[in-house]
Amino acid sequence: MERYFPPGHQLSLYFSFLRIRGNEANSFTLDDYFNEIMYYEMELETNLIDILNKVGIEASVKTDRYSLPYKNEFRQVQVSYRNIVEAFDFQLLTREIVNELIRKKVKKIRFYLIADLILEKDPKRLDIKKTLISKIRYSTHKSHE
Fold this sequence. Notes:
Layout (H helix, E strand, L loop, with lengths): L10 H7 L12 H25 L3 E3 L11 E9 L3 H4 L2 H14 L4 E15 L4 E14 L5
Parallel strand pairs: 1-3
Antiparallel strand pairs: 2-4, 3-4
């Protein structure tokens, strides 16, 4: 599975943007980064399952998330220079995936979400460009109605 992993020399940038639990910036590793991103992904999956179920789409995530053979991928890219808390709009992601599933008349899916966070120093703006690439990989199933 392809994932974005920040270069080791840029890990300190990521430390301040992720909810790091029980770690110091100077001991933040790629494993810590991946664990934080997976925690974020699972949180979003839980919220998305709840929303999809409310609109009548039966949704679930496989226990071994990345082993799911998927046939469809929904991809969204959000770019921002704002504060990280304000930068990414989960509601926008949710609206777009719900609209796609309703348009395709999907009633039941299994999915997992990949969130790749890319931080780049922008010398022109003296700021950090934040890019979040969200990929929802899913398979549809026939409902037992």
